[in-house]
Protein 1
Amino acid sequence: MTLIFQNIRKQYGSNVAIDDVSTEFVPGLIHGIIGPNGAGKSTLINMTAGSYTVSSGAIVLDGRQMQSLKKYEIANSGIARTYQNIRLFDQMTALENLEVCYYPTEVGATWREVLWPPFSRSQRERRREACMEILRFFNLQGYATAEAGSLPYGRQRMLEIARALVMNPRVLLLDEPAAGLNHHETAELTAKLAELRSPARIMIIVEHDMDLVMTLCDRIVVMHHGKLLFQGTPAEVQANPDVQLAYLGTANDIDEIRAAAQDRRAKLGIRARQRS
Amino acid sequence: MSAADTPAAAAPRTRRIIPFLVFALAIALLVATPFLPNYHIRVINGLLIYILLGIGLNIVIGYAGLLDLGFVAFYAVGAYTYALLASPQFDLHLPFLLILLIAAFLGMLTGILLGIPVLKLRGDYLAIVTLGFGEIIRIMMNNVDWLTGGPQGIARLDKASVFGIEFARPVEIYFLLLVIVFTVAVLVWRMEQSILGKAWAAIREDQDAARGIGINTTNAKLAAFATSASIGSIAGVIFAASQRFVSPESFTLQESVLIVLMIVIGGIGNILGIVAGAAILILLPEVLREFAEWRILFLGLLMIVLIIIRPAGIVPRSFGPDKLIRGLFGK
C-alpha cells in the first residue's frame, strides 16, 4: 500500500499553485511536508482529501486513482484528514463528533435502528464504547458529553485528530496539527502522534513547528513556490543548502533572528515566555 | 460558602418543576379535550395538525439546517391526494389507510424531486427556491381545473374510516390525530438519535467536514427532504379528511411561514419546542379572539421579546425529549 502523487498540478487561472509534484508516501512512516507560507503544502493535503480538484496528474492509493472521486468517496476509501482551521461539529458533543463517523458503514441499518429498540441499543452501545476508547487515548474522556465547540482550543485540536482516527484511516492527513498549541500541548501531541505510527497507516503532517517535524517525521518533503524542492530524511533536509536558503535559513540566520526577536521583546517590555 | 450553595441547589429544582408543570398541563388538556365543545376540539385538532407539520419541517430546518420555505407544498400534495382518491371528483373511494400510504409515498417523491435541484443551495438561496416551489404547487392546484377543481376546490370528500371505524366527528378525528402525531413524533425522535440523525446534524454544522468523514451529503439531505415531505403529506391527508373539503386557499405561503415561526419560536431542532411553539401560535390567537386586529402586532412583539430572552427558542435544543423523560421519571 502506497500513496503516490504522479505529476500533480493545481492551477487557478494562470496562477500555478502546485507545479508538477511527484512523490510517494509509504505506510509505517510519518511523512512531513514543510515549506514557507504559500508553498502549496495545504493545497497538497486538500487535493489528496478531495477538498480541491486536481488540475492534472494523478493521486494513486493502492493502485486506485483517487483524484476524480468525490470527497466522501475519498474519505470512505480510507483517507482521513484534519484541518488547518479546526472544523469540528461545534454543537455536537465530543462523543457525537466521533460517533457520526460510523455513518458510512451503519447508515444502511437506519430503519432497524429507528424501529427496533433492542438493535439500536446494542448498536449505540458498541459505537459509544469504540469512540470512548479513542477519546480515552487522547485524554478527552472527561469532555465526552461537552459540546465540541466549548472545548479549550488545544483539546479541540486533539478531538479533530480523534475524529479522523475513528475512521480507521489508511492515510491520515494532518494539516498543521500544532498550530496555536503551547509548548506543553505540542509535546503531548508529538507523543500521541508518535504512538499512531503503524505499519497499516500512512501519516502525512504539514507543519511549521520544526521541532515537531524533525522529532517525528521519518521522511520530509520540502515545498517551495508550488514545486517540490527536496525530499529526504530530517538530517538530509537540514543539511541541504537549497532548503536552508528557501526555508530553514542557515544556522547563523536562525541565531540572528532569535537574537533580534529577543531584543524586540526586551524593548517592548515583554517578559520571556513562561509555561507552567 | 453555604450562601453560595443555596441558589445553585435551587436552580435544578425549579428547572425540574417547570417542565413537570407544563407537561402535567399538556396531559390534562389532552385528557379534557374529548369533553370540550366541538368548536374547541376543532381548535385542538388544528393544533395537532400543525404539530405534525412542525415535526416534519423541523427535520429539514432543525436537524439538517436547510431553510425550507415551501413546506406547505407537501401538505397540499397530501390533501389533494386524499381529495382525488376519496371523493366524487373521479368517483374514487379508496380506503383511508391506503391513501395515507400513497400520500406518504407521493410526498416522499415530491420531496426528492424538490431536493435534487436544490441540493447545492444553502441558506437564503435555498429559502427562495423552496418558497417558489410552494407557490408553484399552489398556483398549479388553482389552475389545473380538470384535476383539482381550480379555486373552487374539491368538496364532499369521504369520511375517513379505518377497519370499519369511522373518523368524522371532531372527537373521532382528535383520537386519530393523537395516535398519528404520537407515532410520528416517536419515530422522528428516534430518527434524530440514529446515525442518520447524527449525519444530519453534522451537515448542519459543517457540510464540507461532513463529506470529509465519508458522509454522502446528497443522500443524507435527500433522506431529510423525503422524510420531512412525507410527514407533511400525511398531515395533509388528515387535514383533508377532517375538513372534507380542500381548496388552494389553505396552502398559501403564510402557512409555510407560520410553520417556520412555530419551529423558531418553540425551539429549533427539538420536538418539544415545536409542541410549545405550535401551542403558542395556534392557541393564543384563539384565546385573544377579541383582539383579533392586534394579532400581527402581538406576534411581532412576542418574536422580539423571545429573540431577546430566549434566542434558542422556548425549549432549546439541549432540552430534548430524553431530558424530559429523565426529569419526569427520575434518574
Protein 2
Amino acid sequence: MSGKEIDEVSGVDTTGHEWDGIKELNNPLPRWWVLTFYATIVWALAYTIAYPAWPLIHSATSGVLGYSSRGDIKNELAAAQAAKRDYVAAVEAKTVDEILADETLRQFASAAGAAAFKVNCIQCHGTGAAGSAGFPNLNDDDWLWGGKPDEIRATIAHGVRFAEDDATRTSEMPAFGTILEPAQIRQIAQYVRSLSGSEQDMSAIGDGAQLFVANCAVCHRETGKGNRELGAPDLTDAIWLYGSGEADILHQIRTPRHGVMPAWAGRLGDTTVKELAVYVYSLGGGQ
Amino acid sequence: MLDVGTTIERLDAEPVNSAKVRQPLYAPRKKIFPKRAEGRFRQFKWLVMLVTLGIYYLTPWLRWDRGAYAPDQAVLVDLANRRFYFAFIEIWPQEFWLVAGLLVMAGFGLFLVTSAVGRAWCGYTCPQTVWVDLFLVVERWIEGDRNARIKLEAAPWSAHKLALRTAKHGIWIAIAIATGGAWIFYFADAPKLLGDLVTGSAAPIAYITIAVLTATTYTFGGLMREQVCTYMCPWPRIQAAMLDESSLTVTYNDWRGEPRARHSKKATAAGQSVGDCVDCNACVAVCPMGIDIRDGQQLECITCALCIDACDGVMDKLGRERGLISYATLSDYNFNMAIATAGGEVAVDPARVRTAQGILRADLAHVGWRKVVRPRTLVYFGAWSLVGLLLLYGLLSRDRLQVNVLHDRNPQFVVLSDGAIRNGYTVKLLNKIPEPRTVVVTLHGLPGGEMTAIGIEQPADRSFAVRVEPDRLKTVKVYVAQPAADVAGSIQPFRFVVEDKSSFETDSYDASFEAPNP
C-alpha cells in the first residue's frame, strides 16, 4: 500500500484492499465500540486471574478468588442439610406413629422416604411400589408381617429372611412335593382356590379339606386366614404374592419360593428407615 | 395582509436531518438545545406530565384494606407468593391471561389512537418523552434557555461551567434514583421497604434494580434523549404502517406558508407574492427532536406539537391566523394544497387561499370529529371494547374456589385383600379469597365408592371436610375404593365436587376410576 488514497464520494481513505475494482473504505470504528472492545480484553484477563482458567500439566490455575464449582455444590448441600436439620432431629427423636400424627413432620418424612425409596427400593418393589410376582405390592392392605406403622418400620429395618440380621422376619414353608402324593397336592390346591372364591373344580377337591387341616392348618390356620406371627399368608383374600392360578398354587405347594429382603437399618440408618416407613404407610394400605 | 409591523427575531437553528445537506451514513450526533415553548399544547403537556408522573410515583403508596390475611397495598406485584393485587382484584398465576388480555387491549388502544390522532403516544405519554421533558426543565432551570445553553456548551471549562454542569447532572441523577426507587415499591410493601432501603437492610435485588433503572433513566433521559426515539425505538417504524390519509399529524401548511419571506414588507412592496411563513425558525428551535417540520412528515417527529405552539405565538404577534403549523390530516392538506396550487398547475400561491379581504377562504378543509370517527377507528374501537368486555366477563365470572385433581398413574389401581379396587388421587383445593374456609369434598357417581384422605381422621365415607388457609392451595391425598361387586367396567367416570357450605360456592372435577380388565 503506497500512501493514502482518498475516496472521492465519501472523503474517507481506503484500506488499499481491492477486489475486482471494488475498494474497501477505511472507516474508523466508533470510539465507544473500540473502548468496549478493550474493556472486554481487560475483563477477560482479569477473569482468568480471578477464576480457575489457565491449564497446567496436571491441573489448572486455581484463581485468586478460590472459586470452584465443587465448592459451590458442597456449600449448597451444607445449606440444604442445615435447612432441614430441625426436621431430621424431630424424625430421629419420634416414633413413626408420632411422626404420622404431626402433619408437617409427616409431609417432610414422607417426601424424604419417597426419595430414599426411589434409590433403594424400586429395584424390587417398582417405582409406584406396586411390586410384581414375588415382590409384594406395598399399596394394598395385605401385610405378611403387619401393616401398622411400627411393624412396617421393623420389617424395613431388619429385612425378611436376611441371615445376617438376628431380628429378621423369618418363615419357611416345607416343600410338600416330597411329602405328599401329587394327587393329594392337587386336591389341596383346589381346596385353597375355593377358600378365596376362585373358580375350582369341586369334583377334584376330594379330601382336600381334610388334607389342608392335617398339613397346612398349623401355620395357615383351619380357616386359611394365615398367621402373621409365623409369616403365614392369608389364603382367603384376593392378593397372591406368587400368583393365584392353579399352576402357581401347585408350584408353591410342591417347591415353595421364599423371597428375601435385606435389612436396611445398618445401611440407611434408623432415621431414613423411619422416613421409609412413613412413606410406605402413606401409600394408603397401612393399618 | 394584516402585517402590523412587528419584527420577528430570526433564530439561528439548523435541523439535524436537513434534507438540503447530503448527510453521510454515519454522522456524529448534532447536539440539540430545545428552546422553551409556550402555548396550549405546552400547557396540556405539563398536565400530562403531572398526571403520568403522579400515577407512577404515588400508586404504590395507595392503601386498600383486604382484611387480616392479605397485604393492604392497593397495587402490589407479590412475586414471592405469586400474587398480583390491584385494588379489589387479586390475580393468581393461572389467571395471568387477564393481564395478557390487558396487553391485547393496550395493543388495540395504540392502533386506535395512532390511526386517529397519529403518534400521540410518542408526543405526550411515552415515558421517554415525559422524562426527557422533565430533564429539560432541570437543564433550563440550571443553565438557562437555548442561547445560554449553546453559549455554555461552546465556552471553555471554568469553575462556573463546572458548577452548572455538576448541579444539572446531580439533579438528573437524583431524579433517576427516584425513578428507579419508585419502581421497586410496586413489588413489596412500600412503607416497610422504604424503611429497609434507608437502613440498608432491603434485599440486594432492590438495590440492584434501583441501580439499573437509575442508569437507564439517566442515560436515556439525560444523555441520549432524541436518539432513543430515532435509533432505538421500533415504534416510529411500526406507526408509519398505521397512519393513513385521515390520521392527524403535525403538519406545516405550506399552502399558506410558502413562499417564505424573511422581509415580507419589502417583498410585498416589490410586488412579490409572500406566504405566512416568515422563516423565523421558531419551530426548529423548540423541537426536542431537532428537526424542521417544514420539511414535511418525517420519522423523527414525535408529534409533541411544540412547534405548533411556537408558530402560533409568532402568528399572534404578526396578527395572522393561527395554524400555519397545525394538526391536520393528509387528505385535508392535499385538498387545501390543491386550492393553493390550482390543482398542481402553478407553484403555491398564498393569494389563492385567501379572499379579497385577506382572510382565509371558508371552503378550506379543517380538522373535525368526522376525521376521527371513521370505519377504521370504529373497527379498532370495537375490537378494543370487545376484548375489554370479555375480560370484564372473565373477571366477574371467575371461580374463587377451585379444585384440580391428579389421578395416580403408578399404580393406576390397587386390588385390596377383599377384592375391592382402590384408585389414588391428588386433590388440590384452591381458596382464592383472603379468608380461611372449610371445604367439603364429595363423591358424585361411582356406586359404592368411598374416600379416605391422608391426614384427615375420618372413616371411609362419601365426603369429608377440610380447612383451607386464606389465599392458599391445599393438597390432599385421597384414596377412593369401590367394592368388587360394584365395579362396572375398567374405566368409570365420576366427579369430585367441592363446596364451601357458608358461601355456597362450588366447583367440580370430572375424574375417572380405573379397574383391571375383567
